[in-house]
Design a protein that fits this description.
Elements: E1 2-3, E2 6-7, H1 11-20, E3 31-37, E4 43-48, E5 53-56, H2 58-63, H3 68-77, E6 101-107, E7 111-116, E8 124-126, H4 127-132, H5 137-143
Antiparallel strand pairs: 1-2, 3-4, 4-5, 6-7, 7-8
InterPro entries: GBBH-like_N (IPR010376), GBBH-like_N_sf (IPR038492)
Keywords: Iron, Metal-binding
Domain Gamma-butyrobetaine hydroxylase-like N-terminal: 40-131
């Protein structure tokens, strides 16, 4: 049954869809330790329960914002998560401070939410999302 683009599925169909979505093991998306280097501006580090270690800079995370607006903009322009927007081709471009959060909060037991220095704060960075966009060499080569 569908209505204007909305597809209603049974519980069994939803579970089957989730299984096909390449679900990661629980230990892979459960942090053992999270470090947000807000004061130094270095970025975020996560040690996962499966022993993996992930690290991102703040500008990379801002360019990988998972909110609907940023996700749609990346799809429209063909940018990958973490890839910066192209610089405008103007003679005198305005200075833009590097992306850095002004605050960070933990959302339940599943995510982080940043308020960025550009005023953006819609993205919720779930543990699952962060593990899927892990920036280490091994994870990047697996995705390639």
């Amino acid at each position: 049954m569908s209505h204007e683009g909305i597809r209603f599925v049974s519980r069994e169909e939803a579970l089957a869809d989730a299984a096909q979505d390449n679900c990661l093991p629980r230990e892979a998306v459960t942090p053992a330790k999270v470090r947000v280097h807000l004061t130094s501006g270095e970025g975020v580090e996560i040690e996962w329960k499966d022993g993996h270690h992930s690290k991102w800079t703040f500008p990379w995370l801002r360019d990988a914002c998972p909110c609907a607006t940023c996700h749609e903009e990346r799809q429209h322009t063909g940018r990958k998560p973490g890839e910066p927007k192209p610089k405008p081709k103007e003679l005198f471009t305005m200075y833009q401070a590097p992306a850095k959060p002004t605050s960070v909060e933990k959302i339940g037991n599943y995510a982080l939410k940043f308020k960025w220095n550009d005023g953006h704060e819609a993205g919720i960075y779930s543990w699952d999302h962060l593990r899927r966009v892990c920036n280490c060499d091994a994870c990047r080569s697996t995705r390639a």
